């Protein structure tokens, strides 16, 4: 069976795409927004530049864009947006790297958070006896800039995303996960304090001690309660380099058993896993040229190969022992003999590894394309069903081109249950991400794969949670949040009673 794109989709998408791109925000009228109006832009360029995201699937046109010069401008906008008989919706846009229109608004105001980056240094590293080292960073800052600024002081945050060109406010509104999450929890679990402009226009400093309801609601809160203008992030001494390894498996249960084994402390500092499938596209650039043919042969032979990607950090004091530690950590693992590969790179090159891929893809014109991604959290007890039911029975059988498919475990106990983020009910759960890349006009075929995956989970009674969730109905959101739904709604009423914030998430009714 082949992965075919229905022709009518292509035609329909072309027509819709043309209609959307030819619209401009200038025809959308806003009620009066007082003094802040002088800072609003509604030229076609500003409106179009905030009308879609990394997904290139959803297009929404704002009536105006605010380039704030300080958090006070955000306060003024939100106060004015509430002060109308028909409140105006407001969407904070960090780096616009959502894939389903989460940072968009139709007819409201987009806050271009990156404008704050021009406003002097908003990354300040400090130390206190009670907290140790920490950084106060603007919600608009990119993680890559946080990394560079803290490394200058020999320090680093401990929990990351794979890709660092995302805003602090954007990832803290979701969770912020990567191969460090099994050890330290997601980025939302690594925050001391936040400044938040609530949906009522109040600038509030909150933490686990001060207004904790707002603090925990905002962490993983999908932008529903306020706009993060500052986050206080704990820092640790930065390592200098990383031993970066990949181990290949043909057998899923050996792969997942070894991943879970590697979650033990004092082993690797980073732990992820990926699929390589015979239908490709295959990126083997990590591996020595000489080894690439035998890797390709292995993938062809089995159809699917799983690999564990892990890293051990080291510095001058551990440079002599790191190889021994890696050796000891991987002893007894069941990867295919001779299919262990290693690189030795600087810490920053390791953390910034996806940027290298970005540059390659950009040069091939393959970055600005559609990304119908789906990420789910799967309880450990059902992860082998995902292998048989999804990887083998959907992806392999239908020959679905798999750009990047990731799968790695995390510890529930590293996620504070008071945060808005939702995860499965088991101690260990996996993230499974199908990071599809498609042409502008064939993403629907990948969405059909996503639909089949979710349907398979429903039919098989696998209680998954979406990460970077996207739902169409209130009922689905209610199911998603489960026992947290009531408090999520209560916090909305308390902090954003007119429901003006983050309409692109489509959780509460979108307002104009
Ligand atoms: P945006 O898309 O701009 O905004 C996302 C949501 O947050 C919107 O609802 C928006 O209104 C709201 N928001 C934005 N700024 C603020 C703020 N300051 N305060 C309150 N709300 C705000 N995620 C991971 O966890 N791990 C990964 O490894 C990872 N890798 C990725 C790699 C790529 C190439 C891409 C495109 C995405 C990746 N993501 C990953 C997903 C990413 O973390 C989320 O999409 C995140 O929201 C992107 O941040 P952003 O600044 O682009 O947010």
Automatic annotation (TrEMBL):
Its cofactor is FAD. Keywords: FAD, Flavoprotein, Membrane, Nucleus, Oxidoreductase, Transcription, Transmembrane, Transmembrane helix. One of its GO terms (molecular function) is DNA-directed RNA polymerase activity. It comes from the Eukaryota. It is found in: Nucleus. It catalyses: N(6)-dimethylallyladenine + A + H2O = 3-methyl-2-butenal + adenine + AH2. Its EC number is 1.5.99.12. GO terms for biological process: cytokinin metabolic process; DNA-templated transcription. The keyword Cytoplasm does not apply. One of its GO terms (cellular component) is nuclear DNA-directed RNA polymerase complex. The chain crosses the membrane at residues 10-30. Residues 58-238 form the FAD-binding PCMH-type domain. The keyword Transcription applies. Belongs to the oxygen-dependent FAD-linked oxidoreductase family. Belongs to the archaeal Rpo5/eukaryotic RPB5 RNA polymerase subunit family. This is cytokinin dehydrogenase. It comes from Malus domestica.
């Amino acid at each position: 069976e082949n992965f075919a794109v229905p022709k009518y989709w292509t035609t329909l998408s072309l027509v819709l795409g043309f209609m959307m791109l030819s619209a401009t925000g200038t025809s959308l009228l806003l009620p009066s927004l007082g003094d802040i109006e002088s800072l609003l832009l509604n030229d076609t360029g500003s409106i179009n530049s905030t009308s879609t995201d990394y997904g290139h699937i959803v297009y929404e046109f704002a009536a105006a864009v605010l380039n704030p010069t300080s958090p006070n401008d955000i306060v003024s906008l939100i106060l004015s947006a509430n002060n109308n008989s028909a409140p105006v919706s407001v969407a904070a846009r960090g780096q616009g790297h959502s894939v389903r229109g989460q940072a968009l608004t139709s007819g409201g105001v987009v806050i271009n958070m990156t404008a704050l980056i021009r406003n002097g240094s908003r990354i300040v590293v400090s130390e206190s006896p009670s907290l140790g080292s920490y950084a106060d960073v603007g919600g608009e800052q990119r993680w890559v800039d946080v990394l560079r600024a803290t490394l200058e002081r020999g320090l680093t945050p401990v929990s990351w995303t794979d890709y660092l060109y995302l805003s602090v406010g954007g990832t803290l509104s979701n969770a912020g996960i990567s191969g460090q999450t099994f050890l330290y929890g997601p980025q939302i679990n690594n925050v001391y304090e936040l400044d938040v402009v609530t949906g009522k226009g109040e600038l509030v400093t909150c933490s686990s001690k001060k207004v904790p309801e707002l603090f925990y609601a905002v962490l993983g809160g999908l932008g529903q309660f306020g706009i993060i203008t500052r986050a206080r992030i704990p820092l640790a001494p930065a390592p200098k380099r990383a031993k970066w390894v990949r181990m290949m498996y043909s057998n899923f249960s050996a792969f997942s058993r070894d991943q879970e084994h590697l979650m033990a402390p004092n082993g690797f500092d980073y732990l992820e896993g990926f699929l390589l499938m015979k239908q490709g596209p295959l990126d083997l650039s990590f591996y020595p040229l000489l080894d690439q043919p035998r890797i390709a042969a292995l993938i062809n032979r089995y159809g699917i190969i799983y690999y564990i990607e892990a890293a051990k950090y080291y510095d001058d004091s551990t440079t002599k022992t790191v190889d021994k530690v890696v050796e000891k950590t991987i002893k007894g693992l069941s990867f295919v003999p001779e299919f262990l590969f290693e690189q030795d790179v600087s810490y920053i090159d390791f953390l910034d590894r996806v940027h290298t891929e970005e540059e390659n893809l950009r040069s091939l014109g393959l970055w600005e394309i559609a990304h119908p991604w789906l990420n789910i959290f799967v309880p450990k007890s059902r992860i082998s069903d995902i292998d048989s039911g999804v990887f083998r029975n959907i992806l392999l059988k239908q020959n679905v081109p798999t750009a990047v498919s990731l799968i790695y475990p995390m510890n529930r106990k590293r996620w504070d249950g008071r945060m808005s983020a939702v995860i499965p009910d088991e101690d260990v759960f996996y993230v499974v991400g199908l990071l599809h890349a498609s042409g502008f006009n064939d993403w629907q075929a990948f969405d059909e794969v996503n639909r089949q995956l979710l349907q398979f989970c429903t039919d098989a009674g696998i209680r998954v949670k979406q990460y970077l969730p996207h739902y169409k109905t209130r009922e689905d959101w209610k199911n998603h949040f489960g026992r947290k739904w009531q408090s999520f709604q209560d916090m909305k009423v308390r902090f954003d009673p007119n429901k003006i914030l983050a309409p692109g998430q489509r959780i509460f009714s979108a307002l104009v």
